[in-house]
């Protein structure tokens, strides 16, 4: 049975989504490792997980019983999060319940629009869509295009907004106010419990945390820097 928007929203309301990603060349970058990390965060109470790469999606879908938000990062510049129809279809076929994709207003490499991607994912693949946005206008456009969930994922990474030290709460407030009933996931630079609570207070439907839970190299570096031991 495919996941419905209502199922996703019920399961994630006021809860934590955890992004489990390792980066190219890193020791933890294997699908088996990320699936284990996903299992570990689900044991801790994660309501859904977000994973990158087709093999990670396949491994994780078989390992956890929570919704899996899948994406395919192709490169690290420009539109790289599930950039084309081909990438989006592949993530859906790998088993993701929700496909996350770049929903900024920048042109996509295959000339597709967010509306094209949403239509294909809903009608042909039967999966949900998380729109990774970078500012208010892209969030409004993604909601209008029919994305099931809008995320603040790309705020601070495209030049549309300054890169705030923590989450971009100003944008989050503006998006939740403007979109009213449309669900918004707060994502990006949420590093503390207080920031997670503040994101929910700002109107987020759910909070997605990555680095501060699943990236030991960064966590270690933060401690090393804090004690001046680098
Ligand atoms: C900008 C971009 O490519 N963000 C990616 C999106 O999938 C991931 O690298 C982030 O880790 C994720 O968004 C979670 O954010 P944070 O790790 O800050 O909690």
UniProtKB/TrEMBL annotation:
- Keyword hit for Metal-binding: no
Its GO CC terms are: cytosol
Q: What is its EC number?
A: 5.1.3.9
Q: What transmembrane ranges does the database entry give?
A: none
Q: Which GO terms describe its molecular function?
A: N-acylglucosamine-6-phosphate 2-epimerase activity
Q: CDD domains, alphabetically? A: NanE
Entry keyword set: Carbohydrate metabolism, Isomerase
Annotated metabolic or biological route of this protein: Amino-sugar metabolism; N-acetylneuraminate degradation; D-fructose 6-phosphate from N-acetylneuraminate: step 3/5
Catalytic class of the enzyme: isomerase
Q: Which reaction does it catalyse?
A: an N-acyl-D-glucosamine 6-phosphate = an N-acyl-D-mannosamine 6-phosphate
Q: Which InterPro entries match?
A: Aldolase_TIM, NanE, RibuloseP-bd_barrel
| One BP term from GO | N-acetylmannosamine catabolic process
On the tree of life, the source organism's domain of life is Bacteria
Cited function: Converts N-acetylmannosamine-6-phosphate (ManNAc-6-P) to N-acetylglucosamine-6-phosphate (GlcNAc-6-P).
Family per similarity comment: Belongs to the NanE family.
- Protein name per the record: Putative N-acetylmannosamine-6-phosphate 2-epimerase
Q: Which species?
A: Ornithinimicrobium avium
User: Taxonomic lineage of this organism?
Assistant: Bacteria, Bacillati, Actinomycetota, Actinomycetes, Micrococcales
């Amino acid at each position: 049975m495919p996941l419905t928007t209502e199922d996703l929203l019920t399961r994630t309301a006021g809860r934590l989504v955890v992004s489990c990603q390792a980066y190219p060349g890193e020791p933890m970058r294997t699908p088996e490792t990320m699936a284990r990390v996903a299992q570990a965060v689900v044991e801790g109470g994660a309501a859904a997980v977000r994973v990158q790469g087709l093999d990670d999606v396949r491994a994780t879908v078989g390992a956890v019983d929570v919704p899996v938000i899948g994406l395919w990062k192709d490169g690290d510049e420009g539109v790289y999060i599930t950039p084309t129809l081909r990438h989006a279809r592949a993530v859906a076929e790998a088993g993701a319940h929700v496909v996350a994709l770049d929903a900024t207003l920048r042109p996509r490499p295959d000339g597709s629009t967010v509306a094209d991607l949403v239509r294909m994912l809903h009608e042909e693949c039967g999966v949900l869509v998380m729109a990774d946005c970078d500012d208010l206008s892209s969030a409004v456009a993604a909601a209008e295009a029919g994305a099931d969930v809008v995320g603040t994922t790309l705020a601070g990474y495209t030049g549309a907004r300054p890169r705030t030290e923590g989450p971009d709460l100003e944008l989050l407030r503006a998006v939740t106010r403007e979109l009213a009933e449309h669900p918004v996931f707060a994502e990006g630079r949420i590093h503390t419990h207080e920031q997670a609570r503040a994101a929910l207070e700002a109107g987020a439907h759910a909070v997605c945390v990555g680095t501060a839970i699943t990236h030991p190299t960064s966590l270690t570096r933060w401690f090393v820097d804090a004690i001046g031991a680098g």
